[in-house]
């Protein structure tokens, strides 16, 4: 069962998330010397970075940062998930070694060659995870208004992908159409998955995902085999949830 934390507003949400990420990072570094993290695009990077970008207690030099999904555009294009994370987080944290930042191959992305970009990104994952099924310490996901996460959209055949670690998508219903995405075998092998979403516009979908599990939406298929799912949301996004669906926030 997912654990849902609802915060009074955006600032409180960013603050709770910052505290949580700091703890996960400390635990992972104490356990195996680094934190492997994959991050979504969309609204998440801004919520995440508000406090985290200035957090002096995190050993960012031991972070390895991947993307949960990426759009096939150049790294300077406004649609780039890499650019969003760079602007809001990475540009403020020089301690993260450049070689620990695993962005999509910009050539393939600019050429909209989603197939080669996906193969290349899968190679990056295999190299880092030493040919084992990737197991991120922390996967931070957004939730689209249609219930998608990563670039895994409702009803899309990619929801059934079992072999590839990273898959191309050529017909994303949300532009741009060419993208790459982590697949469920990787998502569901993560140690921790945290969904982060905010605002009134997300309240209906949050209610369906948390309280109507039979809908089989992409976010509902996130069920890590050996991990826990958390939802960090604000009161506006939680407005339609029953009180019992939320837990009291504690570290
Ligand atoms: O297209 C995407 O959308 C989702 C959700 O974005 P949001 O703006 O509604 O938070 C995002 O998680 C994903 O990474 C991105 O590529």
TrEMBL record:
Family in the record: Belongs to the glucosamine/galactosamine-6-phosphate isomerase family. 6-phosphogluconolactonase subfamily.
Catalytic activity: 6-phospho-D-glucono-1,5-lactone + H2O = 6-phospho-D-gluconate + H(+)
UniProt-recorded name of the protein: 6-phosphogluconolactonase
EC class (word): hydrolase
InterPro entries reported in the protein's UniProt record: 6-phosphogluconolactonase_DevB, 6PGL, Glc/Gal-6P_isomerase, NagB/RpiA_transferase-like
Domain Glucosamine/galactosamine-6-phosphate isomerase: 10-231
Keywords in alphabetical order: Hydrolase
Gene3D superfamilies membership: 3.40.50.1360
Enzyme Commission identifier(s): 3.1.1.31
Pathway(s) served: Carbohydrate degradation; pentose phosphate pathway; D-ribulose 5-phosphate from D-glucose 6-phosphate (oxidative stage): step 2/3
One example of a Gene Ontology biological process annotation: carbohydrate metabolic process
Originating organism: Thamnidium elegans
Task performed by this protein: Hydrolysis of 6-phosphogluconolactone to 6-phosphogluconate.
Statement: the UniProt record of this protein carries the keyword Lyase: no
GO MF annotation, one: 6-phosphogluconolactonase activity
């Amino acid at each position: 069962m997912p654990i849902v934390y609802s915060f009074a507003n955006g600032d409180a949400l960013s603050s709770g998330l910052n505290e949580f990420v700091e703890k996960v990072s400390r635990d992972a570094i104490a356990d195996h010397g680094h934190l492997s993290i994959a991050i979504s695009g969309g609204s998440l990077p801004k919520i995440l970075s508000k406090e985290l970008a200035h957090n002096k207690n995190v050993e960012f030099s031991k972070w390895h940062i991947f993307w949960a999904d990426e759009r096939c555009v150049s790294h300077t294009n406004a649609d780039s998930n890499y650019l969003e994370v760079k602007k809001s987080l990475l540009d403020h944290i020089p301690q993260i070694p450049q070689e620990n930042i695993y962005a999509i191959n910009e050539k393939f992305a600019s050429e909209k060659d989603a197939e080669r970009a996906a193969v290349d990104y899968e190679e990056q994952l295999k190299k880092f995870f030493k040919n084992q099924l990737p197991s991120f310490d922390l996967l931070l996901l957004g939730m689209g208004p249609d219930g998608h996460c990563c670039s895994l959209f409702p009803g899309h055949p990619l929801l059934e992908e079992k072999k590839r670690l990273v898959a191309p998508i050529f017909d994303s219903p949300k532009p741009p159409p060419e993208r790459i995405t982590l697949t469920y075998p990787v998502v569901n092998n993560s140690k921790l998955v945290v969904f982060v979403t905010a605002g009134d516009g997300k309240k209906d979908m949050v209610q369906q995902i948390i309280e109507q599990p039979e809908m089989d939406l992409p976010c509902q298929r996130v069920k890590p085999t050996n991990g826990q799912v958390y939802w960090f949301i604000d009161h506006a996004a939680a407005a339609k949830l029953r009180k019992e669906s939320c837990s009291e926030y504690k570290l």
